[in-house]
Amino acid sequence: MSEKKFIGYFRLVEACETPGCPVCRCVIDESRGYLAALLHEQVTDPDTRRALRASWGFCNWHAGMLPEIEHSIFGAAIIYEDLVRLALERTEGLADGGYPPRRRGWLSALRRRPRPGAVVALYRSRPACPACVSAVQLERRYLDTLVRFVDDGDLHAAYARSDGLCVPHLFAALEVGGDRPEVTTLVDRTREKWRTLGRTLGSFVAKHDYRNREPYTHAEVAASTRAFDTLTGARSVFGNDIHAR
Predict the structure, then answer these.
(1) Cβ-contact 79, 52 below 8 angstroms
(2) How far apart are CA 232 and CA 201, in angstroms?
(3) What beta strand segments (E) does the chain contain?
(4) Dihedral angle, C-alpha 107, 112, 115, 119, nearest 10 °
């Protein structure tokens, strides 16, 4: 066994046995593992808490994962009690409508009141969610491993059985792999999977003809959902474009 294979190699092989993009599956699993370790072991760690305060907590996706982590509610409550208090401190005075409160000296109150633009800028420029920072680093390792070992026996066979990479992760693999010849192999094998998906979708659409008497197959029924994930990645992994920073 090559020493260059890290545990992610074997996780990739396992992920290929589940529906959808295997790298998306690895990123999701790694995120859950990161959050579980943090909530069970690092709730009081000063560096962890400092990073969470700077980022105003986890992103929407990772915060949404917290209730899914077993025995996590207490640890999450400790963290978010602090974050709610911090949000109140940072926004104190924003509801004054631009006027200093009564019973205070006008100049001293003005000095204490934060300017809305400054608070918004602080929020908009916050560091990335710590769970996302960890996930993106591991994501690149998984992509590098997939490119490097695309022809390795176990991974080769597992990828052949998988649904293949989603579009976003194929492009990410191109960036990670550069001009390595293994990238071309990965692209060819992935595109063939997309062709198969397209044919299955076409068959499903064609069977909606009123003259058709042939039943839908399980693969045809599942093809639409597979197509959603193939074009955009697994749900939440890549977020949306509305509030992308």
Answers:
(1) yes
(2) 17
(3) none
(4) 170
Given a cut of 90, whether residue 2 has pLDDT beyond it is no
Band of the pLDDT at 108, cuts 50, 70, 90? low
Q: Helix 181-206 to helix 218-232 angle, to the nearest 10 degrees?
A: 130
pTM reported for the whole predicted model: 0.85
pLDDT band at 117; cut points 50, 70, 90: confident
Q: How far apart are CA 75 and CA 14, in angstroms?
A: 30
Cβ 31 vs Cβ 135: under 8 Å: yes
User: How far, rounded to the nearest angstrom, does the alpha carbon of residue 90 sit from its chain's CA centroid?
Assistant: 28
The angle that helices 46-55 and 73-90 make with each other, rounded to 10 degrees, is: 50
Alpha carbons 237 and 219: distance in angstroms, whole number: 24
**Identity of the amino acid at 109:** A
CB-based burial, 171-186: b 16+ in 10 Å, e otherwise: ebbbebbeeeeebeeb
Spatial distance between the Cα atoms of 72 and 58, rounded to a whole number of angstroms: 14
| 13 Cβ neighbours under 8 A, 6+ residues apart | 154, 155, 158
